[in-house]
Design a protein that fits this description.
The complex is a heterodimer of chains A (315) and B (429).
Chain A lengths: L1 H10 L13 H19 L12 E6 L5 H12 L3 E6 L11 H9 L5 E6 L4 H8 L3 E7 L5 H15 L6 E5 L6 H12 L3 E5 L15 E3 L2 H5 L4 E4 L4 H5 L6 H8 L3 H4 L7 E3 L12 H5 L6 H19 L3
Parallel strand pairs in A: 1-2, 1-3, 3-4, 5-6, 5-8, 6-7, 8-9
Helix pairs in contact in A: 2-6, 2-13, 3-13, 4-5, 6-7, 6-13
Chain B lengths: L3 E10 L4 E9 L5 E5 L12 E4 L4 E4 L1 E6 L12 H10 L2 E6 L10 H14 L3 E6 L13 H6 L4 E2 L9 H14 L2 E4 L4 H4 L4 E2 L2 H6 L3 E2 L2 H16 L3 E4 L5 H12 L5 E5 H5 L21 H12 L5 E3 L7 H4 L16 H10 L5 H8 L1 H7 L14 E11 L18 E11 L2 E5 L1
Parallel strand pairs in B: 1-4, 1-5, 6-7, 7-8, 8-9, 10-13, 11-12, 13-14, 14-15
Antiparallel strand pairs in B: 1-2, 2-3, 5-16, 16-17, 17-18
Helix pairs in contact in B: 4-7, 7-8
The chains are: A alpha/beta (315), B alpha/beta (429).
Chain lengths: 315, 429
């Protein structure tokens, strides 16, 4: 009898959180509802629950990350899970072991959840085909960063009460941004209108097919927007052939109080961090608690990740 | 070997404008003795073996202008024996093998080796190509003259393009004098760097670095511009976009002489088929839009494209079970070349004769080899297929050593029944 149960358990395909693209509108809303309950818990004196007691969570980060990694770490611990973070810089992967070998090795340790961050788009999808546990994507290549989009949505709902009917501008290096892609999908699903603003060299081809309007002019792109999401411009992009200079980028695409005036009066600013002050955003603006939601994003990130861990972890 | 007569065949041989019911007589030496509806009794000796083809189609054995064999260096992917089996099962009797082996086929001793090894192990006609440049580095041309005398039919860096315009000028200038065939893989590396699929909606959705059609077009533009100055035998291995086709059209209309190939992958798949990171569909040049695919089919119809190739590229599972950007490039295809090509007949895009032409006499003419025809006196390399039999492609049943087919589970129509090599039955399904 016990053996039979076991076979069923293996055959049971756990659900993974690989991207916003794979979510239904209802699933996204359910995660956001669940996350709301954790905001309170995280603000209380005793932050610990035992929902995931006895569960093992492995954070497998192939790319350096500060906030996402610590956010998942904390989220798992607050739910009572045993959390292990794999420092890939010291692992066998540097010795030529493939992602699949690592997956098999980790799988043999019977984790319940693997949280993966990888520089290659689609790596979490590949991993999910090989392991028996839940896989949560903490960012893959330029493709998706679903929990970031979910925490952005929660932050907006927290301040604006809703997403439906809002106009949201996503500005900066759209081409190399998984945050932009996940947000485009999610904000569209939740009924917002989405503008993307970038210089042509940082705008992906056929982006309109994802359901957005694209602009190269901040003034036009921000017009009538309730939320302005700025993206990080990575240093290496400034040295390549994408842009003439940091100075020129800031002049035309850096968010300043003047450019913010193109948006609605009560428009709010978001940034997934870490910020390049004086490159994509004016430093005072970034810290202005009246318009900047940056700190709230980090806070609610933990709540969203707790919700995801709880809902996706195999019971 | 006894004489043979294959009766009740629908013979399609574009090299002699033949599409008729008739018979083929193969003499004792494996050559075509008589062919067509008028085969007479006195063409046949009384002891001849009679094979009834039951109204199935008989064509010249297919000539595949681009296939990769793993020998030497990559025997775990494919060897001469497995490649031969796969080829014969696909009706292919002549193969131009790519020189990007390990070591590369870029010097005379390697050519000797591969010809000897092929003769001992292969059961199809092999026509080796050599690299265009030493070490495939795109800097110094290989010994075109010496290599040709050793049996090299064409020169190509297979999966690489010569980037330096200066080197290309020298190559074409030199080649124009000695008459060797230059086969270019058109791809500008600076533009295609790190790219793994077509640049467009799918690359945007999957978050992968795209390869613009410009990477292909710019090399074709450059080479054709040079061809105006140095008229050599120039062939573009494979094109993938309608923009490339426009450049080709303009130049062919201006009277420039060159030939063009297309991979069966780009004729039967588009970028949407990649779905959720199917690495078996990572090919070079990449699969592009449906519009491009349709344009390429029309390109065959109008004669702008001369040949269809399998671009047979065996890769083992290890190389493909990786994140898309890291996965190996290429798909096997020699065994499924004909059935996929026949799709274009069944969906009424191309006449049957045109398809057969691009698979037989056209490549043979470009290569200047005496193949792809069933004219009296030719080698009796023949493929017999049933035009209508439906079947489903299953990787496990394919004969190639590697199973990386891009068309797993595809429903196709038309199946190779028999393949003859020099008059001998070499494959029977």
């Amino acid at each position: 009898m016990a053996a039979k149960k076991n076979t069923i358990a293996i055959k049971d395909q756990p659900k993974h959180l690989l991207g916003i693209q794979n979510l239904s509108v209802q699933e996204a809303k359910n995660i956001l509802e669940e996350a709301k309950t954790f905001i309170k818990l995280n603000r209380s004196i005793s932050k610990k629950s035992d929902i995931l007691r006895g569960k093992t969570q492995i954070n497998l980060f192939f790319e350096p990350s500060t906030r996402t990694q610590s956010s998942f770490d904390l989220a798992g611990k607050r739910l009572g899970a045993d959390v292990m973070t794999m420092n890939v810089a010291n692992s066998a992967l540097k010795k030529g072991e493939t992602l699949m070998d690592t997956a098999m090795t980790l799988n043999a340790m019977h984790p319940d959840i693997i949280v993966i961050r990888h520089q290659d788009s689609g790596a979490p999808n590949l991993l999910s085909q090989k392991v028996n546990c839940t896989v949560i994507n903490a960012g893959d290549g330029w493709r998706e960063h679903p929990t970031q989009a979910l925490l952005d949505a929660l932050t907006i709902i927290n301040r604006k009460g809703k997403i439906e009917g809002l106009k949201i501008a996503i500005c900066g290096d759209i081409l190399h941004s998984r945050v932009a892609r996940s947000n485009i999908y999610l904000m569209n699903m939740l009924g917002a209108e989405v503008n993307v603003v970038a210089p042509k060299t940082l705008m992906p081809k056929s982006i309109e097919r994802l359901g957005v309007k694209s602009f190269t002019d901040m003034k036009k792109g921000l017009d009538g927007c309730d939320i302005v999401m700025m993206l990080r411009l990575q240093n290496e992009r400034m040295q390549g052939s994408f842009l003439p200079s940091k100075r020129e980028y800031y002049e035309f695409y850096g968010l300043t109080p003047e450019k913010l005036k193109f948006a609605n009066k009560d428009a709010l600013i978001m940034h997934p961090g870490p910020m390049n002050r004086g490159v994509e955003i004016d430093t005072k603006l970034a810290d202005d608690i009246n318009v900047s939601l940056v700190k709230e994003q980090v806070e609610l990130g933990v709540a969203v990740r707790m919700a995801c861990l709880k809902m996706y972890c195999k019971k | 070997m006894t004489e043979k007569i294959l009766i009740n065949a629908r013979i399609i041989d574009p090299s002699q404008e033949m599409d008729e019911k008739g018979s083929v007589v193969v003499d004792k030496n494996g050559k075509i003795k008589a062919i067509g509806k008028d085969v007479k009794k006195n063409d046949i000796s009384s002891s001849a073996e009679i094979i009834d083809l039951k109204n199935n189609i008989l064509i010249p054995g297919i000539v595949d202008m681009k296939a990769f064999v793993g020998e030497p260096g990559y025997e775990y992917k494919e060897n001469f024996r497995t490649l031969s089996h796969a080829a014969l099962a696909g009706g292919v009797t002549s193969i131009v093998t790519m020189p990007n082996t390990k070591p590369l086929i870029d010097n005379v001793s390697m050519v000797d080796f591969i010809i000897r090894r092929g003769r001992d192990k292969a059961s199809v006609n092999l026509f080796p190509s050599a690299t265009l440049t030493r070490e495939m580095e795109g800097k110094q041309m290989t010994e075109f003259g010496l290599l040709s005398t050793k049996g090299i039919v064409g020169f190509t860096d297979a999966v690489k393009a010569v980037q330096s315009t200066e080197t290309m000028v020298k190559i074409m200038d030199y080649a124009s004098d000695i008459g060797v065939l230059i086969m270019q893989h058109a791809e500008d590396y600076e533009l295609s760097k790190n790219g793994c699929i077509n640049e467009g909606e799918v690359s945007t959705r999957l978050g992968l670095q795209g390869i613009s059609y410009i990477a292909e077009k710019i090399i074709i533009e450059r080479d054709l511009s040079l061809l105006n100055e140095f008229s050599c035998r120039y062939h573009i291995n494979q094109i993938s976009s309608k923009e490339s086709l426009e450049v080709i059209k303009r130049n062919k209309e201006n009277g420039l002489n060159f030939t063009v190939g297309v991979s069966i992958n780009n004729l039967s798949l588009n970028e949407n088929d990649i779905g959720d990171f199917k690495t078996f569909l990572k090919v070079s040049p990449p699969l592009r839009l449906e519009d491009d695919r349709l344009a390429l089919v029309q390109g065959i119809k109008s004669g702008l494209i001369d040949v269809i190739i399998s671009d047979h590229t065996p890769e083992d599972e290890e190389g493909k079970r990786l994140p898309f950007a890291q996965a190996a490039t290429g798909a096997i295809g020699i065994e499924t070349l004909l059935p996929l090509a026949l799709e274009m007949y069944h969906n009424e895009s191309l006449p049957l004769k045109k398809i057969i032409e691009t698979l037989t006499i056209n490549p043979a003419k470009i290569l200047k080899i005496n193949k792809g025809t069933l004219k009296k006196g030719s080698d009796a390399d023949m493929c017999i297929f049933d035009l209508d039999t439906p079947w489903i492609i299953k990787a496990d049943l394919l004969k190639s050593k590697s199973k990386n087919t891009a068309v797993e589970e595809r429903k196709v129509q038309g199946k190779v029944l028999m393949t003859f090599l020099n008059g001998e039955l070499a494959f029977k399904s």
